[in-house]
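Severity: low
Component: inverse-folding endpoint
Summary: output formatting inconsistent between runs
Steps to reproduce: submit the following structure tokens with default settings.
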């Protein structure tokens, strides 16, 4: 009888130690996050699906790079350009303070929170997103503390006109969900 209790206790300890409840990893959170399509005219895809705060992952500038492609046959307009360049046509776009680009972190299965964006010293400006054209989109993370981990996505707002009437609702599209680990 005593041996049976010891054997049962040993089995229970083994079972509990092998099935202990662990929190989902940042990668698991990113993979389980629902993908939102938005309006669907812009396709936004990060270069990688997994990052960490190590310099070799994000670089000294702390950037996440993505490709933004206007998959439609219409030109759209968004504040994503570098104001220093002063051009309506730019190949490199920016998610920065004051832009129509946003970085969001998953909070719950159906909610996201917007994170602070980095600042471009010269500011941001409207650019044209030409039909069937791809652009490099840089998400500046240097305004963050470096301890934010979990599932993230990029949200971009855009308009049919460079001078949208006040109060006009922007079109919106989202990137794939990606993970940033400690």
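Observed output (run 2 of 3):
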């Amino acid at each position: 009888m005593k041996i049976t209790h010891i054997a049962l206790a040993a089995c229970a300890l083994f079972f509990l130690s092998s099935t202990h409840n662990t929190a989902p990893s940042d990668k698991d959170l990113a993979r389980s996050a629902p993908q939102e399509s938005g309006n669907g005219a812009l396709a936004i895809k990060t270069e990688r699906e997994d990052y960490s705060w190590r310099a070799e992952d994000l670089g000294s500038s702390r950037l996440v790079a993505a490709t933004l492609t206007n998959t439609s046959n219409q030109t759209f307009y968004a504040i994503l350009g570098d104001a220093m360049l002063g051009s309506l046509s730019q190949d490199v776009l920016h998610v920065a303070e004051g832009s129509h680009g946003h970085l969001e972190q998953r909070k719950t299965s159906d909610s996201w929170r917007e994170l602070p964006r980095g600042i471009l010293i010269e500011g941001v400006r409207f650019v044209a997103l030409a039909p069937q054209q791809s652009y490099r989109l840089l998400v500046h993370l240097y305004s963050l503390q470096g301890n934010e981990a979990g599932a993230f996505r990029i949200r971009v707002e855009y308009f049919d006109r460079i001078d949208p009437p006040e109060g006009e609702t922007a079109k919106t599209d989202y990137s794939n969900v990606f993970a940033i680990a400690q």
